[in-house]
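Supplementary Methods, section 5.1.

A reviewer requested that the exact input to the structure prediction be made available. We therefore reproduce it here, unchanged from the version used in the analyses.
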Amino acid sequence: MKKQLLGVAASVGFCLASPCYANWTLNLGYHNPMNADLGVNFLYWGSQWNFEVGIGWVDADAKATDDVDETVKDDDGVGLALAGDLNLKYRFTTGAIAPYVQVGIGAWTSAAVGDDTDANADLGGPFIGAGLMIGKPNFYGYAAYNVDKSENGQVQAGIGFDI
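The structure derived from this sequence is encoded token-by-token as follows.
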């Protein structure tokens, strides 16, 4: 009887409990990641600290050939390369209009399977910037200005939504 009451109490508690949110959003950005024309980014929307990882460049390649000529051997295989960035934002307020600063670093990875099997990953150049976020996690827009280590500046902008 105790186990049944405990099961009923747990079931009622789970049904009445508020939903759990992971606070992850998806945004589409111009120059986000840095140096990409367009990018897709996942942003963790914390209280004032936000972590973002983005992909701004993808290259997929597949080669399969019939090696008819024994003197010329073509490389067969499948390859994938991704480039983007990782960054951390600090929003000065938690309201619907929030100025922020960010610091980040470029990142890339690649892998190939076949005649030339290989895998690589590396971090690129750092950048720093400041911007303005308008909205809340369910729908928001942002604009920023970032500078990389070569002192090249880029305007960054985009829209995002809760996933």
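Strands lie at 24-30, 38-45, 49-63, 77-91, 97-114, 118-136, 139-148, 153-162. These observations are discussed further in the main text.
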